[in-house]
């Protein structure tokens, strides 16, 4: 990206929305567009930090979830539910993680319809290092004041609840 | 996605972060993860609304930007700056829009290093209809109260400013 713009282009779009008679939709348009832009900034930063670990943010989330599970393993369908991604997205992530030896798919002991996803020793090691880097380089240093992060999380929790993410 | 989860999985991850001694990073981790999840919800909703118009949200943004420009045209490099996407992403969007006759690339009258992007008559028609649907189905009905949308936009503006999005 070249030098910063003199004015926020999303604020400009919001002004255009109002000028064209869509004032009732302007705040919502601006908020939604800003969320997408912000997600893209964070995703680029996270992926850059995780690249030396051979991970993307999506694959990191799979490892982190398994790392928190009591047995270091979870059924595929439960993992996809907790990560709130479609089964096909999870399958893609797991294919890559399995190819690099960070996770294993193993038979579920009692449910033949699903398989267990298990963190390998190497997966635990990579997770440990990757999480340390994310904590130090992204989460401790996000560019967002702590009070803003908390308010944001509350607003997004209300929204995600309204969209059926959780009860 | 199956039935809603009994608890917010991002709040659970936040608890895990605190339990493992990363309390200083927990709020930031939760906010960033929630932003990515929320962006994904909105992107899916926007893309579903735009599909009947043959558009994605990224391609809609290109049309909307051109629609607001005084001459209905903009240099490619300026468009990529205002949309805050890399030149290659814009090229992909424009390739698709040009293939369906919604925009044209035309020579820049004075600058041989860039080309102008111009909205076609069909592009204007599609933009008009697509924007109407987005306003009615997404922006008027986002699931986020107006006060939340405004606070969110302010927080994200501060953050985007800190990341060099605009001066």
Strand order of the largest sheet of chain A: 1-3-2
> What is the CATH homology-level superfamily of the domain at 58-133 in chain A?
Winged helix-like DNA-binding domain superfamily/Winged helix DNA-binding domain
And the CATH topology of the domain at 58-133 in chain A?
Arc Repressor Mutant, subunit A
- CATH class (first level) name of the domain at 58-133 in chain A: Mainly Alpha
Helix percent of chain A reads 55-70%
Domain HTH marR-type (chains A, B): 25-161
Protein name (chains A, B): Putative transcriptional regulator, MarR family protein
Pfam families (chains A, B): MarR_2 (PF12802)
GO molecular function (chains A, B): DNA binding; DNA-binding transcription factor activity
Topology:
The structure is a homodimer of 167-residue chains.
Chain A: H1 9-19, H2 23-50, H3 57-68, E1 73-75, H4 76-83, H5 87-99, E2 103-107, E3 115-119, H6 121-137, H7 146-162
Describe this structure in words.
- Two copies of one chain form a homodimer.
- With 167 residues, the first copy, chain A, is mainly alpha-helical.
- Chain A has a domain at 58-133: Winged helix-like DNA-binding domain superfamily/Winged helix DNA-binding domain (Arc Repressor Mutant, subunit A).
- The first copy, chain A, contains seven helices and three strands; from the N terminus they run αααβααββαα.
- Chain A has helices spanning 9-19, 23-50, 57-68, 76-83, 87-99, 121-137, 146-162; strands spanning 73-75, 103-107, 115-119.
- In chain A, a hairpin with a 7-residue loop joins strand 2 and strand 3.
- In chain A, helix 1 (9-19) runs antiparallel to helix 2 and helix 3 packs across helix 6.
- The longest helix of chain A is centred in the first third of the chain and has 28 residues, at 23-50.
- At the A-B interface, helix 1, helix 2, helix 3, helix 4 and helix 7 of A face helix 1, helix 2, helix 3, helix 4 and helix 7 of B.
- Chains A, B: Pfam families: MarR_2 (PF12802).
- Chains A, B: One of its GO terms (biological process) is response to stress.
- Chains A, B: Keywords: DNA-binding, Transcription, Transcription regulation.
- Chains A, B: It comes from Glutamicibacter uratoxydans.
């Amino acid at each position: 990206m070249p030098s910063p713009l003199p004015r926020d282009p999303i604020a400009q779009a919001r002004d255009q929305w109002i000028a064209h008679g869509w004032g009732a939709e302007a705040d919502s348009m601006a908020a939604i567009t800003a969320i997408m832009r912000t997600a893209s900034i964070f995703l680029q930063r996270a992926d850059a930090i995780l690249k030396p670990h051979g991970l993307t943010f999506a694959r990191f989330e799979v490892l982190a979830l398994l790392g928190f599970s009591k047995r270091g393993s979870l059924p595929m369908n439960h993992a996809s539910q907790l990560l709130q991604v479609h089964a096909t997205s999870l399958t893609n992530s797991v294919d890559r993680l399995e190819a690099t030896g960070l996770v294993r798919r193993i038979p579920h002991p009692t449910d033949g319809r699903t398989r267990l996803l298990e963190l390998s020793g190497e997966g635990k090691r990579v997770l440990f290092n990757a999480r340390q880097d994310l904590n130090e380089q992204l989460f401790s240093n996000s560019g967002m004041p702590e009070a803003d992060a908390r308010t944001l999380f509350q607003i997004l929790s209300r929204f995600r609840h309204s969209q059926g993410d959780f009860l």
